[in-house]
């Protein structure tokens, strides 16, 4: 039997996270053999597909659920995505500019936005604090028919919108364009059991076994399932939160966000242009607890049950959520948002916070649109772990779980993995190229920084 090839790094999952890592490993390290396994026939068909997410480049300026520290973190990683894209001539295929704003409705939200503007504008100089007339000039339908006081923080000329599936394809293309390396994309390749094989790992697939010195699992909620199978991350459980959307005629020119209710762990709905359905605006996402790891894929129900690991700690976390009246009402309301005969009427009430004169006849449930955010339940801390989660075992295998803003953070998350892999395998990172291409710094300023 021929000797099995050993890859330096094997990535499982070809969404925007896995493909971003493939690109960084190929472009910025001296590793020679890298492979990515994806079970479907193309990359980014699950949560990273534009149909299934809000297509937003989250920069931290209009997301009022982010603290200043979190906003700075996503701003850096959003910039990496823009820098990568602007280096390529065809970036206008996946990166778009729209206006964006977050509106403060009523006195309390208005006051909150004013304070937020004062705290954030030093880090986000493009922010503008605007009042009713200026909002009307930008987004007529946000003001039409509105009686309450309103103000907004707006950003007018920045990249706001990404087709993350086309971005993923660009990552693969750039990775495979690097000369002198084997960069393999194995589509229709379902990764099954992962086990140790001496100092390497062995991954069983429907197309035979792959061997690698390092494995990174970027398989959404499935990543935690792989971790559990290997005895890692047992203190985590996964709560899949589906998000649905509603279409309205193209009443919005750009992105319109609302102020977050800070009692709720999930982001408030917003209005967005849809780059895949250009004559419509999209409102959402809703937040529905759902017993599958992939939306509209009932085959992932057994996987959900395995990854949930339902026990007293999980039930306590759920109970703590249900105890809070705002969260309880929110959970029930979001369940009703899925019920055919009542959902449009109910959603209309929330949607009117963004477009006050919206009519029922203009609201359409976006059928089979929207993905699943794999939210982690930290059983030890007995709370939800919001945002991305990485289980770095220190043993040559990493598991990534990436709810929103995981698509925006793809290059930042990949950088984390890149550095862990470089330490573990002892490979070199071309820091100058990394800074120049992704951080937007030139070699001179990088070397000055190193000297300082
Ligand atoms: C409703 C909603 C709105 C969102 N909006 C935004 C937004 O506006 N901006 C933003 O930044 N983020 C947003 N997100 C989050 C974002 O979509 C995700 O963070 C991101 O797409 C995650 O990418 P990923 O590559 O980690 O996972 P995925 O895109 O889910 O990719 C995982 C891949 O792993 C593959 N896979 C799974 N199991 C196996 C296996 N056994 N073998 C081989 N392959 C396997 C799957 O087929 C899939 O291709 C949103 C998410 C939702 C649900």
Question: What's the structural blueprint in terms of helices and strands?
Answer:
Blueprint lengths: L5 E7 L3 H13 L4 E5 L30 H19 L8 E11 H15 L7 E4 H7 L1 H4 L6 E13 L1 H13 L5 E5 L4 E7 L2 E6 L2 E10 L4 H8 L6 E7 L3 E4 L5 E4 L11 E4 L6 E5 L3 E2 L11 H8 L3 H12 L1 H12 L6 H9 L12 E2 L6 E7 L4 E3 L3 E4 L4 E5 L8 H16 L5 H9 L3 H9 L1
Parallel strand pairs: 1-2, 1-9, 2-6, 3-12, 9-20
Antiparallel strand pairs: 3-5, 4-5, 7-8, 8-9, 10-15, 10-17, 11-14, 11-16, 13-14, 17-18, 19-20
Describe this structure in words.
- The N and C termini lie far apart (55 Å).
- The chain has 14 helices and 20 strands.
- The longest helix has 19 residues, at 68-86.
- The protein has 452 residues and is of the alpha+beta class.
- The protein has two domains: 1-55 and 163-235 and 380-452, FAD/NAD(P)-binding domain (3-Layer(bba) Sandwich); 239-251 and 262-376, no CATH class.
- Strands 1, 2, 6, 7, 8, 9, 19 and 20 form an eight-stranded mixed sheet that branches.
- Bound molecules: flavin-adenine dinucleotide.
- The site of flavin-adenine dinucleotide (FAD) has 42 residues, from helix 1 and strand 17.
């Amino acid at each position: 039997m021929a000797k099995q090839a050993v890859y330096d790094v094997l990535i499982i999952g070809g969404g925007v996270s896995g493909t971003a890592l493939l690109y960084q490993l190929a472009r910025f390290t001296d590793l020679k053999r890298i492979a990515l396994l994806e079970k479907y026939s193309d990359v980014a068909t699950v949560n990273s597909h534009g149909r299934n997410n809000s297509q937003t480049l989250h920069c931290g300026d209009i997301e009022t659920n982010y603290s200043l520290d979190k906003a700075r973190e996503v701003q850096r990683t959003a910039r990496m995505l823009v820098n990568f894209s602007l280096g390529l001539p065809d970036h206008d295929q996946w990166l778009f500019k729209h206006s964006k704003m977050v509106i403060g409705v009523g006195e309390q939200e208005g006051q909150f936005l004013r304070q937020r503007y004062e705290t954030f504008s030093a880090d986000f100089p493009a922010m503008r604090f605007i009042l009713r007339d200026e909002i009307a000039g930008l987004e007529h339908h946000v003001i039409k028919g509105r009686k309450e006081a309103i103000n907004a923080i707006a950003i007018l000329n920045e990249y706001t919108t990404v087709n993350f599936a086309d971005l993923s394809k660009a990552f693969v293309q750039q990775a495979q364009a690097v000369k002198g390396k084997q960069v393999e994309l194995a589509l229709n390749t379902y990764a099954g059991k992962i086990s140790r094989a001496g100092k390497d790992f062995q991954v069983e697939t429907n197309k035979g076994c792959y061997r690698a010195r390092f494995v990174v699992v970027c398989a959404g909620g499935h990543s935690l399932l792989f971790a559990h199978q290997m005895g890692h991350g047992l203190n985590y459980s996964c709560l899949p939160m589906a998000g649905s959307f509603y279409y309205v005629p193209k009443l919005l020119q750009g992105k319109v966000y609302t102020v977050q209710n800070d009692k709720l762990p999930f982001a408030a709905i917003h209005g967005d242009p849809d780059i895949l359905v250009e004559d419509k605006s999209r409102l959402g996402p809703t937040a529905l607890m759902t017993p599958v790891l992939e939306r509209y894929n009932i085959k992932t129900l057994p996987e959900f049950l395995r990854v949930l690991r339902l026990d007293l700690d999980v039930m306590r976390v759920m109970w703590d959520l249900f105890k809070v009246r705002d969260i309880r009402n929110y959970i029930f309301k979001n369940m009703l948002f899925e019920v055919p005969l009542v959902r449009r009427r109910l959603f209309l009430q929330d949607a009117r916070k963004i477009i006050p004169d919206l009519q029922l006849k203009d609201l359409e449930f976006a059928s089979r649109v929207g993905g699943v955010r794999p939210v982690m339940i930290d059983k030890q801390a007995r709370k939800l772990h919001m945002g991305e989660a990485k289980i770095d075992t220190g043993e040559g295998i990493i598991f990534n779980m990436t709810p929103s803003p995981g698509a925006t953070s793809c290059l930042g998350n990949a950088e984390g993995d890149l550095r862990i892999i470089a330490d573990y395998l002892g490979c070199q990172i071309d820091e100058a190229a990394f800074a120049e291409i992704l951080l937007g710094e030139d070699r001179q300023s990088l070397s000055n920084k190193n000297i300082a």
